[in-house]
Amino acid sequence: MSVTLQFCGAAHTVTGSCFYFQSKAGRVLVDCGLFQGPKTVKALNYSAFPFRPADIDAVLLTHAHIDHSGLLPKLIREGYGGEIMATQATIDLCSCLLPDAGSIQESEVEMLNRRNAARGRAEVSPIYTQADAVASLKAFRPVAYQEWFEVIAGVRARYWNAGHLLGSASIEIEFAGEGDSGQPLRILASGDLGPDAKLLQPDPDGPSGLDYVISESTYGDRDRPPITPEARRQHLAAEIREAYAANGPILIPAFAVERTQELIIDIVDQMDRGTIPAAPIFLDSPLAIRATKVFRQHAGSFNSGIDVNRLLSSPHLRCTETVDESKAIAKLTGFHIIIAASGMCDAGRIRHHLKRWLWQRNATVLLSGFQAQGTLGRFLIEGAKSVRIQGDEIKVAARIRSFDEYSGHADGPELASWIAARRPVRRGLFLVHGEEASLAGLSDRIAERIIPAAEIFTPLLDDVYDLSAAEPKALDVARRRRLAPEAVVNLDWHNDMSKLILDINERIEAAADDRARGVIVRRLRRALD
Ligand SMILES: [Zn+2]
């Protein structure tokens, strides 16, 4: 009799949440996320799952974000025939997000195939299509917060509000008879955890008295100053007034789901109160427009005191669905507000607006969330003087502002107190879903003070742990690994390469004259040979 857990994603700097439990009762998957980040990690999306999809008996989904749900259509296309259990709000958001992810993959592969054809390379096919994603929606089954339900015979689960996103959950799972002296083995998967003082969500909740806790650690090394919704609104208003004073637009790259709606609610509220100048707010993202409708449908489920329905239907808000409508915005000058995806500027319509405005001094770019390493948003925050967008090098003259007060994630102290509230944690704590520094930061913060250091584990991708042993043991899995541990680094050579090219261009341009430029080029050439 044993229960094993394989970390198929969200392990040690690799994104894409996915946990695979095997027990005598059956096989249960928690999350099936798309891998994001460096190319070596993204390549995992195209390779085989480390399990047979047809063997899985049930899937539990923590929330709709693509790094948790984005490979579900592939799982079903490759043979999974069971149900995907999620809250109703998660299902409604997945109905927007998954088809969108399918269509992004189709168009990315189409572009790649055009380039491949020109180079005489073979065609590749998308991870899944929009049609696959739509078909996968039939497998979803709604579950309520706070109610136990049977996952498969011998395994039951209960969802807790994780306060991270509309519909988000931490999932408590019990394997009957697998714990100490015939008791159930009790496990809690945190999913992503929200911060305190989130505009629309309550603080994260959860049970206590567990054998194992699997906790996210995205911001484990951060210590954010405490913030109130009112202080955040005032800070946002100040940024908007400065952009207005510069007499240019303010571009806000934002995640389409929740961040966009939080921003709209606070901006509209300020305009209605007259604390910032009224101006059109262009919501230039078909996905964000659909997600906004889901937020209006679930208006009753948010923190009280906010009229979500009224604020999200404001006449200031202009939804630009079509490409023509989106292009028309580019003709505008003077102060206006553009909110578009993606939040890290690595895809979506925001890139057209950045190309149009980044080189202009009177424009403002307000980065409103976490920027992963290697993304355009991260390069901007780090002060890049020029960036590449759609093959063109664009100078950065716009005011780059970053504003992380709308974070969807708990910071280090909040994660630590969430973990503390789960005690007793009898056998072990797994830290997942974080970059190297976040995992180490969270581990340092809680070791001994909250959980004995020997009971804290930071698994690598594809590590398998035997959860039945009195102390969890990593099984020997070298043959199963999809990535060599040394390949799992934050930045891979593709990112280093683009940065190197930008640095070379910058040096050459900054040189005094053509003679000096020639010297740099000859030196580089010598280093290469
Ligand atoms: Zn999330």
Question: What is the beta-strand fraction?
Answer: 15-25%
- Find the structural class using helix and strand composition: alpha/beta
Helices, by number, come to 16
Overall number of strands: 23
Major sheet strand order? 6-5-4-3-2-1-22-23
Shape: globular
Helical amount: 25-40%
Which compounds are bound in this model?
zinc ion
Biggest sheet architecture:
8 strands, mixed
Rg from Cα: 24 Å
Name the poorly predicted regions: none
Mean pLDDT: 92
Cα(first) to Cα(last) distance is: 60 Å
Structural commentary:
It is a single chain. With 529 residues, the chain is α/β, with parallel strands linked by helices. Helices cover 33% and strands 19% of the residues. It contains 16 helices and 23 strands. A hairpin with a 6-residue loop joins strand 22 and strand 23. Helix 4 packs antiparallel against helix 5 (130-136) and helix 13 (412-420) packs across helix 14. The radius of gyration is 24 Å and the shape is globular. It binds zinc ion (ZN). Zinc ion binds at residues 63, 65, 68, 164-165, 192.
Describe how the helices and strands are arranged.
Layout: E1 4-7, E2 19-23, E3 26-30, H1 39-42, E4 58-60, H2 66-69, H3 72-77, E5 84-86, H4 88-118, H5 130-136, E6 140-142, E7 149-152, E8 155-161, E9 169-175, E10 185-189, E11 210-216, H6 229-245, E12 250-253, H7 259-273, E13 281-283, H8 286-297, H9 308-311, E14 317-319, H10 323-329, E15 337-340, H11 350-357, E16 364-367, H12 376-381, E17 386-389, E18 392-395, E19 399-402, H13 412-420, E20 425-432, H14 436-446, E21 456-457, E22 464-466, E23 473-474, H15 493-510, H16 514-528
Helix pairs in contact: 4-5, 4-8, 13-14
